[in-house]
């Protein structure tokens, strides 16, 4: 399967996933994230399980305002989720999604680990990033939604991505072959559906997270709100916070940019 292949809307709908109830497939889009938000904001009837996929993104976005290289061959997708969840539980979507997508990549044959909070790496701590996840809450009381963006470096070469090649991986680089994007999408949707379906049992999701984690036990430096926390990552809190033992005591961080402190750093 080469870079020229585009998923078709019909074959995605034929998957009969509850996360692909309504499907848009684009050749080129600035960002599937922006398109999914536009759909959800523009029409409160946009259902849970509205999926936007684009072969190429010209303005793919990552966390913290970073850009996300999105050439042909990757799986660039955003989902509109409408969950009967109190909004303060929305942050738990990110770890649940990370667990789901990590399991999907494992199933595709790539040994994937989660770097807190939402990076999927190969080769463990300090490894190369194969997937990024971006969950954003939007709307107002009568029209609440979450847009969950997933970017998987599938059939792409690292030098075509924006991060330095030594820091990125792809399914192609790890498996030595290209994957069927429809099979990848089907696997991702099934795993996401499972994890999202058990958000009420977040403890079970965290248990799986710990199995897949590569941050716990590491020396870390976390940048958040202009502040830096340095110490050893020792646990996850019950809501997914990273618990860090610092010289000044225990600190819990709910968001931030984590650097694993080891020779070479990530
Ligand atoms: C990150 O690691 O910083 C998150 C990256 C998220 C990228 C995906 S690709 C599909 C969706 N559309 C975007 O513009 N971003 C997300």
Description:
With about 270 residues, this protein is α+β, with helices and mostly antiparallel strands. It folds into two domains: about 10-210, BirA Bifunctional Protein, domain 2 (2-Layer Sandwich), CATH 3.30.930; about 220-260, SH3 type barrels (Roll). The protein is about 25% helix and about 30% strand. It is built from six helices and twelve strands. It has helices spanning about 10-15, 30-40, 95-105, 170-175, 180-195, 200-210; strands at about 20-30, 50-55, 75-80, 110-115, 120, 130-140, 145-150, 220-225, 225-235, 240-245, 250-255, 255-260. It has a seven-stranded mixed beta sheet, sandwiched between helices. A hairpin with a 3-residue loop joins strand 4 and strand 5. Helix 3 (about 95-105) packs across helix 5 (about 180-195) and helix 3 (about 95-105) crosses helix 6. The longest helix has 17 residues, at about 180-195. The mean pLDDT is about 90. Biotin binds near residues 31, 60, 62, 63 and 133.
Summarize the structure.
The chain is α+β, with helices and mostly antiparallel strands and 266 residues long. It has helices at residues 9-13, 32-42, 93-107, 171-175, 181-197, 202-212, and strands at 22-29, 50-57, 75-81, 112-115, 119-122, 128-140, 143-152, 219-224, 227-236, 242-246, 249-253, 257-260.
């Amino acid at each position: 399967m080469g870079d020229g292949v585009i998923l078709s809307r019909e074959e995605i709908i034929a998957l009969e996933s509850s996360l692909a109830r309504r499907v848009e497939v684009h050749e080129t889009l600035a960002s599937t994230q922006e398109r999914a938000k536009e759909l959800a904001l523009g029409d409160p009837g946009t259902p849970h399980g509205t999926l936007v996929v684009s072969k190429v993104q010209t303005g793919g976005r990552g966390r913290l305002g970073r850009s996300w290289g999105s050439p042909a061959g990757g799986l660039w997708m955003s989902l509109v989720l409408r969950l009967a969840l109190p909004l303060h539980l929305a942050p738990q979507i990110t770890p649940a999604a990370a667990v789901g997508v990590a399991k999907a990549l494992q199933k595709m044959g790539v040994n994937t680990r989660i770097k807190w909070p939402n990076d999927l790496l190969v080769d463990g701590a300090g490894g190369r990033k194969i997937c990024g996840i971006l969950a954003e809450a939007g709307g107002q009381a009568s029209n609440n939604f979450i847009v969950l963006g997933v970017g998987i470096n599938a059939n792409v070469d690292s030098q075509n991505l924006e991060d330095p090649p030594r820091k990125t991986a792809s399914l192609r680089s790890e498996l030595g072959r290209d994957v069927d994007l429809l099979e990848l999408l089907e696997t991702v949707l099934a795993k996401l559906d499972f994890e999202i379906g058990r958000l009420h049992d977040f403890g079970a999701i965290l248990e799986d997270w710990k199995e897949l984690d590569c941050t716990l036990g590491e020396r870390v430096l976390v940048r958040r709100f202009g502040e830096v926390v340095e110490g050893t990552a020792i646990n996850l809190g019950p809501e997914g916070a990273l618990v860090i033992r610092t010289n000044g005591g225990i600190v819990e961080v709910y968001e931030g940019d984590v650097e694993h402190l080891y020779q070479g750093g990530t």
